[in-house]
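ingest -> validate -> predict -> emit
validate: passed (alphabet ok, no gaps, 111 aa)
predict: started
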Amino acid sequence: MAIIPTVRCSNMKTSLAFYTGVLDFEHVGGDYAAGFSGFETFSYDLAVPYSPEAWRGRIRASAGIGASLPPDQVESFDTELARLLEESFPGDVLRVLHRVFAIPGTRAPTS
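emit:
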């Protein structure tokens, strides 16, 4: 499994500008450091096993499908996804790559 190297964040304002400006993340306000310092980031990829049925259920439950489409379109989507999975990824287990990303920091002790 490939692990992306840790990167130390020495300036949270610069980092926030990168994530909100370059990567188009949204800063929702408040004290972005929340009393923390010494930020670092790391990420790694993890192959999560799903049965085809479980994967279809996860996709149906997503905001872009189950929460957005009328029931008949959800059913049509699910039928097409089942066909695609059977043709392109036959078998009992799908290994779906997930990216885990974290930003740990250190909080100064309160007096």
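The CA atoms of residues 9 and 85 lie 41 Å apart.
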